[in-house]
Design a protein that fits this description.
Layout (H helix, E strand, L loop, with lengths): L1 E5 L12 E5 L9 E10 L3 H5 L20 E8 L9 E4 L6 E5 L4 E3 L15 H14 L6 E4 L5 H12 L3 E6 L2 H9 L4 E4 L6 H11 L5 E6 L4 H9 E9 L20 H4 L3 E4 L9 H13 L7 E5 L4 H10 L5 E5 L1
Parallel strand pairs: 8-9, 8-11, 9-10, 11-12, 12-13, 14-15
Antiparallel strand pairs: 1-2, 3-4, 3-6, 3-15, 4-5, 5-7
Helix pairs in contact: 2-3, 5-6
The structure holds NADPH dihydro-nicotinamide-adenine-dinucleotide phosphate (NDP).
NADPH dihydro-nicotinamide-adenine-dinucleotide phosphate (NDP) binds next to α2, α3 and α9.
Length: 333
Amino acid sequence: SREIHLTKNFTGPVKPDYFELAEVDVPEPNDGEVQVKNEWLSVDPYMRGRMIGVKTYVDPFKPGGSMEGGAVGRIVKSKSDKYAEGDYVFSMHGWREAWTAPAKGLMKVDADLLPAQTYLGIAGMPGLTAYVGLKRIIDLKDGETLWMSAGAGAVGTAGIQFAKAMGAKVIATAGGKDKCALCEQLGADAAVDYKATDDLAGALRAAAKSIGSKGIDAYYENVGGDHLEAALDVLNQYGRIAACGMIARYNDDRPVPGPANLVQIVGKSLRMQGFIVMDHVDLNDAFIKDLSDWMMAGKVQSKETVYEGIENMPEAFMGLFSGTNTGKMLVKL
Ligand code: NDP
């Protein structure tokens, strides 16, 4: 069976030589274990942090060993009474084609209810992340105006649709015309192509005006850098920022200075709060309930970009930083 290993820990832009395809044996399961053939692998921006070689909120990946990541696969051999052959499970045993591990700690997924890969996207971690950011961190209210950054990505496409279902007006930003069109198709009231303007704050103000909003009440931060600066500029008094991620910073060689206009946070009484989705899993039941209602009402759909074959996983991962994905970036085996 094949898996992807890291060749070294690194800072700076991600390069193909930092990954290698390794051949490994998959052991027979012992009592309490299962053997699984992965069908869907997830690549996510947070994985970049684990490639640096410094402990953050999770341990770094070690060069030459198996990496971790979200995966959905089918049980092919079971020595656990919890799982039967053919069951679908979510695990963190990603970046590989097959594995054997204790059944404890796996999560069964219902691939009849929703397509198996949605448990890595809208019905999984990125979906919950969008939900937590909007519900708990921003506490988005009916009628408010939200700016969703990286709007055409996994968290972004989920967040636009959830925010609309919560009764908000949504302005999305994304790179390129097609991505902006997708954001609008998913319900965004306006979309701004951040690559086509050198005055992001001005473009956002114009977008808010065009949809009859009195400015922007809340900002869902996925990007950092110039986006955060624009947010500090355009947010209304008492505006809220959910700091979910800052992908524009993940490939930096060294820390760069923060927003030049940070002082705005004082005068406007802004509130900015970061969060890690795993600290908010208590919201998962409410999330699944709302998501099913919204999906049943036709308000929410899943968007995905799929690369095929384990050998293309590094390319899929690198694509997150150049924006080759719309919706959730996935690798199908
Ligand atoms: P996405 O599917 O949004 O993929 C990343 C997207 O980011 C790209 O498609 C690209 O879109 C955009 N992007 C990349 N580089 C830049 C840049 N320099 N400037 C502006 N946009 C850029 O990924 P996810 O939805 O999985 O993640 C989105 C964010 O949420 C990330 O910051 C991630 O770290 C964070 N996150 C945080 C979690 C938490 O617990 N706090 C959990 C999950 C995700 P475009 O073409 O539009 O530029």
